[in-house]
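Course exercise 7: structure representation. Students receive a sequence record and must write out the corresponding structure in token form. The form below is the worked example handed out in class, using histidine kinase (377 residues). Read each field label carefully; the graders check that inputs and outputs are placed in the correct fields and that the protein name is recorded exactly as given.

STUDENT ID: A-19
EXERCISE PROTEIN: histidine kinase
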Amino acid sequence: MGPDPFVDPAGFTMITVPRVVLAAAAVLVGRRWPLAALVLLLPLGPWQFTEGFATVDLSWLLPRRNVKILPLLATSPFIMWYAYLTGRRTTRAWPASAAFFLVTIVGVGVVLAEGGDLALWVSMTTALIGTYLVPYLLGLLRRRLLQQRRAARLSAEAQARLRERARIARDMHDSLGHDLALIAVRAAGLELAPGVGAAEVKAAGELRVAAADATERLRQIIGLLREEADAPPLTPADEDVAELVRRARDSGMTVALDMTPGPVPGLARAVVQEGITNAAKHAPGAAVQVEVSPERVAVRNGPPRSRPTAQSGGLGLAGLRERVRLAGGTLTAGPMTERVSEGSGFELAVTLPRAGEEDPRRSGGKERPGARRSVHD
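STUDENT ANSWER:
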């Protein structure tokens, strides 16, 4: 791009050396500020029309035959690279717009200086588009794609965090909520036990109220942790149904267990725990009947014999309903038909497909028509 140093050393020093220094400066600043490098390389831009990407014959429109489309110089690939980096790394639009406006002004000046021929306008327009605009747009597209990929990754990480929060909420509800309910049942039993002094009865009442308050605070914490769109985990704790019923009996509850011989459904423990916990909270002192068979798990309780220890509106049945749906089963929860006249009987029942059977609703679809909704949780 300059004189031969062996033929014209003076011309080489006056023309080529400054270009080399300018290119070196562009390399130094181009990695961090590609737009600055683009401006520095402006004197080395595609302002000569001796070589081009293509040559076309426009004699039918212009006096000249050989019109260069997208003029190319030795520096053109580097200018294209820094234009690409400008679109890739420059987040604000106005600096790039100002630089491209300056490039356009220089290109218009070059065309006017050479006579303003229409063929020159064609060459200059293709040079500006091919050397500056298209690489910049490609870099901008690449930046947008990377931003979308990063947003997708962040979204996946957020979903993973929400799933973990849902798992923690499920564990807290299954373990702490159940234990607090049993503590309240034990305290209620002490209140009604014969031969207990007034001070002990008062202390037991305070313990029952404190357990109820702790249960309510736990419900609020679970509401903050749990995301309704997330499916609770499907793996229950290690404790089996019989051990769960035994602990409930030890706490003072009246629980009858009827287990049909055969494989126990994987969700049986979760269903029984939810039913016993709800009975302890909302129907203190009521007798509880637990039935477990290979296809069905049901928990029934009678009317409460003392004031309930918790408020309605928790998330236990909502999470259990989702777990049952994912397992291909059906959950019903509500007053028992034969006890509506008595006013307090409640039944939680889950029907599950046998092991190896196909889900009749095709992998946990909608609930069956007429399925009862929960009236308390």
